[in-house]
Automatic annotation (TrEMBL):
Protein name: FHA domain-containing protein
InterPro entries xrefs: FHA_dom, SMAD_FHA_dom_sf
Domain called FHA: residue spans: 47-88
Keywords: Phosphoprotein
Amino acid sequence: MHFLEPRTPSLLRREPLVAGAPAPRGTLFALGEDGGYAAPPSPGALLLLGRNSPDVHVTVGSGDWHVSREHAALRRDGTGWLVRNSGRLPIGLPGRPPLLSGHETALAPGYTPLHIRGSRLHLVELLVSTGGPAAGVVRPDTGTRDLVWPLTDRERLVLVALFQLALLGAPDARPLSWNETRDALAAVPGQPAWTDRKAEHVVDVVRRRLAASGVPGVTADSAPPDAIKNNLLRVLLETATLVPPDLRLLDTGIGGG
């Protein structure tokens, strides 16, 4: 197996090289807060996830007693990968019911964020290599530019609060209302008082900046009002400007407000 450094970029942005070369099709990457591993697509290959760092490959929820010592097992079975919940808390996977203790399910090729909510939200990024670029990185119509739009820490926090359901992969995910966004920001540690108007203003600044750079559909002069949030969400997800690990900001906060 190949170790992934803690500073490895989000798997949604880039598929890591293995020993300096592209990974074989079917390779499983698992990346947590403290790094992770790439496991080859070999029969019986196994990666363990949990809070007991010495006994697992990928640490999840270190110091959070709600997370089990070994909370999940990722196993190569036949031609695919299975994830089994060996802990107590349910495991969240996009577009599926919660994976309960003792249950297992197949991982689809491509990118999957896995999350466990203990005393706070814990995320592990999974990627089953398809032999091509990671989702959202390069498409045939992608222009030549930096793919990730720059955001300040404050802007990223507000956008993550606004679009958290989509980042979690919730069924029928939608942007939150401004009141709901305000309430989500109010629950973030270390944040000053937020109002719905302050949150909306931060997002307005981002929309105008993207529009000035040629992004269509994110301002009132280029899209109906009820489509603007969804258009902005699509741009931020397709360019991997927002990625599921950004959800950690809702539990850890940022410096200042």
